[in-house]
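Researcher: Re-running this chain for the archive, since the previous output was lost when a drive failed. Same request as before.
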Amino acid sequence: MTIKAILFIISIMDFNAALNNYKNLSEKLIAIRSALDKLEDFFQKGEITEKQYKILRKDYEKELNAIQSELTALKKKVRENLERMRREREQKIAEYDRYKALIMIGEIDGHSGKSKLEGILKDITNLNYRIKQMELLLNVQNPKQIDEIKTLRPSEIPPLPEIIPIDKLFKMEDELKKKRLSGVPGDYVKAFEELDKKISDTRAFLEGFLNRMLEEKNKLEEEAGKLVIKLRVGGENEQQARKDLMEIIKIVKDYDALTQKISKALKALDERMETRIRHKAKEVERAQVETHRERESEPKPKSKPTPEPVKKIEEEFEEETFELSPEEFEEAKEVLKKIVEEKAQKELTETNEEAAPIVEEPPPEAVEELPKISMKGPPKPVRRVTRKPSRKRIPVVAIILGIIVAGGLGFLGYRFFPKKTAKILPVLEQRYIFMGNPQHNYGTVAFITEDIPKPAWTLDLGGVLSQPLIVGGSLYLGNEKGTLFCVDTSGRILWSKTLAGGVLSAPVDHGEDILAGTENGLLYFIYNTGDIHTRMDIGGSILATPAVIKNKAYVTLFQKGIRAINLEGKSTVWSYAPGDIFKSTPAVDGKMVFVGDFARRFYAFSVNDGKILWSFVSEGAIEAPPVVIDKSIVCADNSGYVYRIRKEDGKILWKTSTGNPIPGSPAVKDSVVVVANSMGDVVGISLVDGKVEWTFSTGSVILSTPVIVDKFALVTTTSGEFGEIYAFELKTGKAAWVIPVPTPLDVSPVIVDKYLIVAGRNGQLFAYKTY
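Model: Regenerated structure tokens:
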């Protein structure tokens, strides 16, 4: 007897004991209530005195209350067990679906998988039996019903449904196609319909299972986001939060691996189903041709002669033989016509648009040559038309179609195939620069050497600090307590202001003003002298740095979407609030605003009216700012993927997985994309093709964005009570040096003058002299 069977028997024994206890208490309750009724009758008839009546009634009521308390406690315990068993049943059902999917995609063999499924079905049947018993017990009205519950027996275990792996379904289909050549068409059609239903049912199950997995993954990612916030805040629960985060990351990785396999299987099923649809269409067409021939062979009544122009057109079409059916041919002409029209429209639009940053086109040798397209085997005519012998005609339609196809392919190659080179050009100035330029590199305004920076000074500001902003050689930063500081490079506080709400993100430079947002939804306009002259209520928590261009600010408001604000009139220009969590700074160029949310959707909005120009669904939540690079955007999500997206239409040029959530933004320089995931991996990726160039594992948790200074990438880490600042060679990923810091580091370092400065979780600023 298995341990599971023993536990089940013990649980039945416990439940039977609870039933007996419930029955005894119910019988006692009925007896006491009956005794109270008799006592009342005796007193009314004068058979006992009032004093005796009160004493006896008090004793009965005391006992009655005690029994009712026991019954209430027993019912509470039953309800708790009922909820636990319902959750266990849901887990078993999910486990059953998982094993069923694994059998279908061929990850486990059918024999062992079916044995596992039979065991799970048995567990589900037993749970259904126990749940039914408890539900009946909670609705018991008299002791007799308890005896009926005891007579209840478990249902029979349902038979295991037929589960056929996808590979086997495909083999069955191939065998049916072979039989078709020598068999009876009617038998083939019937068998094919049965197989088609099996394939459709398999696809429907896998698609439903995939959707359920994605929903569960979203819940886990939300939980992971809460744990990351706990890690940033610290405290006594930090270790448990880190442990829980690691467990969630492991589960999400398993989900990602299985999701990819199921998606691949669904793609294979779709391709097969499309092939069958085309095959079925050809069968129908063949039958129509046969019917047409039969009708043609029948004697026809005399009819009027065909007009000469119509006859001439028919003869020209009869001269041609196409691989396409007439319907497909007409559809192809329409599609290619549309491509040519779109090409002309785009070129006209681009001619009339305002001048934008221009990228010099790469030399011819840098452009990837399009693969040649060739036909496999001779074309197969879909029909055969008998006509009178005539002179050889020029295949006009085929030549026109060939010209259109060639022009369409040439246009596609010119417009949409990626080039071999990549260039980074400046975009319209975006004022939120707190980690170098929008690509998170400092260009030539700062440099660092291979020598380890030396400690210069430390300043205690108190509270968890935000990412610092650098303006004119001064640092502006806030803390969770709502204090905004201005500090010079010598570590001296120039001024501080108390704001209403914690300042959890970097302030923004806006000419004469410093803009600072708070978690209470207030946007402050502060002179660089520290005087507050305007306070604007935005209407939602500001947890990310606003993006400011000219006189507009683009602000994300946690659960209230994104809002564009006119900074002169202090009014809302447009807003978008789908109800999902937005926690990252938008990236803005001259025409578009780019931002991602926790619902795994990445948006491109029009800067003028907030119209959604395009969007795509990522593998995980996007909680860090994207980076605009020339004609593309680079972003990362908390499933560990890095994307390069074409700015024009949102097409994904490449995506690369680092294996773990990426909480910060990418940093880009010299065609190298640097990202850091939460498990401590720093990864260098080629901007051109998305290939991983190098990886370095720090062994610590990383919650910040890398920044690039000269030829080095700087990354901060957190490990227990300490942190580190790493410098990596940008080209090789080799660690040049590392600085230990006596507090966890959640934000990126900044470079100002000759100092490397970083804000610690303990409320201190640490400055290091770089030369």
